[in-house]
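Late entry, zinc ion complex.
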Amino acid sequence: MFREAEKQLQRYYGYASFRNGQQEIVTSLLARQDTLGIMPTGGGKSVCYQIPALLFPGLTLVISPLIALMKDQVDALASMGIQASFINSSLSGSEVSARMRAARLGEYKLLYIAPERLEAPGFRAMILDMPVSFLAIDEAHCMSQWGHDFRPSYRAIADWVAEMPERPLIGAFTATATQEVREDIIRLLALRNPNVYISGFDRDNLTFLVRKGENKQDFILSYIKVNKGQSGIIYAATRREVDGLHALLVRKGITAGRYHAGLSDTERSEMQERFLHDDLEVMVASNAFGMGINKSNVRYVIHHNMPKNIEAYYQEAGRAGRDGEPGECVLLFGPQDVQTQRFFIEQSELPPERKENEYRKLQAMVDYCHTTHCLRQHLLQYFGEAAPAACGACSSCTDEAEMVDSTVDAQKIFSCIYRMRERFGAAMVAGVLKGSRSKKVLDTGFNSLPTYGIMANYTEKQIVDLIHLFTAEGYLALSEGKYPVLSLLPKSWAVLKNGEQVLRKVRVEKQKAAPDDALF
Ligand code: ADP
Ligand code: ZN
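Prediction complete; structure with ligand written out below:
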C-alpha cells in the first residue's frame, strides 16, 4: 500500500518521495491507525492526509478553521486532477445543498468543512449518511484551551463522531508540539491508541548560540559590524528597549528599522516593506514582528532578551535562514530577563493553573540558557523529536571548555537547600552559603546553620549561577509561582548520599578582541 501511496505522490504532486515524518504518518494512516501528526508550518502536513484520502474508499472530510485558505487548497487539488470541494460560510444555501448532493453521490474524494458547521444539527444530520471513511482534522490545536487559537466549535467534532453509524479513521494535524496540547487533542477527540509523530522541527542550517554576561549593546554593535551587509533581526522584550536599541544603531550609522505594536500602521508597514526589500539591514523589533513576514535571506536573529518560552524562541529564531543557507541565532541572556518574564506572567489575567504552566515553560527557557549540552539537541528534545544528534556547531558544542569536578560545590549547595527545608529560592540560598549579613538571612536564623558561609570564597552571583546550572541539569527543581522555591531531586540525593560525581563544563575565555569603535 505504501508503494501505491508513493506512486500517487509522484503522479499527482510530482514529488520524488515522502519526506521523513510524512512517511511514518502516511504508513500509520494506511494501516487505519488513528494518528496525530505534529509538524511545523511548511513541514508538509497536507499530503499526509491528501494521499491516504486518494487511496481510501469513499469520502475524506477535512476539518479546517482557515476559511480563507480552503478555496486555495481545493483549487490546488483540482489543478492536479483531484476532485475536492469545500463548504463554509462564503457559500449560499443553494450552493451548499448542491455540494452536499454531489458529495453524497461520491463526486469528491475530499470535502473541506469549517468546524462551525458541525454545531448546526441539520448539517450534522446531513453528513451522517455520507460514506466518510477518513476524518482529517487540520490545526487540531484549536481544540485545546492550552493552544493559542482555541475554537469552541472544535469541541463539537467528538460528539458528532460519536453519532456516526460507523466511526471513521481519524487523523489530527498541528504545528503545536507542547505536551498539554498533544494530550488534549488525544483526549478530546477520543483517539484510539493513536500513533503520535513529531518531525520536521530540525533546521540544520541554523546554528544556536547563548551568550551570558555580555554587555548586550557592545555585543550587538560588534556583531553587526562583523556581519556587515547581511540581513538580521534583533528582538527585544519591550517597546522601550526596541526604541532605545534602534536609536543607538541609527546613531552608529547602521541602516536599522524598528517595529512594535506602539507604532502607527503606516510606520510599521513602511519598515516592513523596506526590510523585505533589503533597504534596511537590521530590524529591531518586539515579538509583534514576524507574523506573516517571509523574508528568506535573514542571516541572523539576535535576542537581546530571553523570550517567554522555547516555542516563542524557536519561532522567532527560525526566521533566520529560510532560504536554506546558513543562519545564526544568538540569545543574549541576562538574569534581569527572567524577572521581566516573571513580571509579564504575574501581570497577565490568566487563571492560576495557566500561570503555573507559563512559569513551567519559562523555566524550560531558562534551562536552555544554562545548559552545557548541545543546544540543538536541547531544543529538539523539548519538541519531542526522537534522538537528535549533537550538532557540533552550537555554543555548547564549540566553546572551548574543560570539565571541572564540582562535586564538593554541589554537595554544599544541595545540603544547604535541604537544611533550609527546601523553602527558599536561589538568591536566599546563595546568601546563606556566602555567609551574608543581610537582614533577610539574619532574621531567619540561618546564620547558625552549618552550611552558613561555607562558600564564602565565591560571589553570590557565582553561587546563583551554579544553582541555575544544577537546575538546568536536572539536579534541582524550581517551583512555579512568583517566589520560586528550590528543592532536591533524586539526582541530587545521589550526590549527597552516594557521593556521585558532578562534572561541570567551564568555558575557557578566549582572548577578547580589543574593542574598536573607530569604524562607527
Ligand atoms: P503545511 O501544511 O505543513 O504548512 P504544506 O503541506 O503546505 O505544509 O507543504 C509545505 C511545502 O512543502 C509545499 O510547498 C509543498 O509543496 C512542499 N512539500 C510537501 N511535501 C513534499 C515532498 N514530499 N517533497 C517535496 N516537497 C514537498
Ligand atoms: Zn550543539
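The two ends are 64 Å apart (CA to CA). Will revisit in the morning.
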